[in-house]
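Hi,

Apologies if this is the wrong queue. I'm a grad student, and the batch job for ATP phosphoribosyltransferase from Listeria fleischmannii 1991 produced an output file that my downstream script rejects. I'm not sure whether the problem is my script or the file. Here is the sequence I used:
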Amino acid sequence: MRLKIALTKGRLEDEAVRLLTKAQVDCSVLADKKRKLIFQSETDEIDFFLVKAVDVLTYVKHGAADIGIVGRDVLLEAASSYYEVLDLKIGVCRFCLAAPKTFDPTDYKRKVIATKYPNVTEAFFRQRGEDVEIIKIEGSVEIAPLLGLADAIVDIVETGATLRDNGLVIFETIHPISARLIVNKASLKQNKTRIFSLIDKLQLVLKEETADETING
Ligand code: PRP
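Support response: The file is valid. Your script probably expects a header line. Output copied below for reference.
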């Protein structure tokens, strides 16, 4: 049976392919993508496909993909059904509460928070016992407080450059984020040997990389 692997398009793609290749998965079909979206590796009997992060979750949930590689940000935002089997330690970033320097987090007025991640934001403020108004924004959330649409944002911070260049600062780090390997529940039962063999190989690669980091500082 062919193994179907859903990869997140964009930032995570190269790093995911690098890890899979090190784990002896033949990813050469992904080298010359053109406008194709499904890539069939004959040597490994794998079909790779490239989709948006939230769609990775949908394909894995419904079993259209056996395995997916997706950021923890997406997993935290959308409740779904899957096994999260590995932290791949790529796509490392964090969810933060950020705002202009003048923002006062202790202010008792009802705050307006702009975010691409309303569920994560809601859970964060609920846990603090604070009721906020959440405005969903699809991208470049940093603009919202600059235009007076929101008091603060909850967003992903990687290098911090976008915040810095837009005069925003971090007030709190909410969750660490990195890419995870997720597996469809039925696939894990049906294709146990193959999937566990891939998990084992990836685990080995991650161990080697951690050891290299320790040696190289
Ligand atoms: C993400 C995130 C921040 C930026 C953070 O946006 O929403 O805007 O990256 O990265 P940095 O800390 O390295 O500057 P993305 O580039 O995915 O685009 P988007 O804003 O359109 O979602």
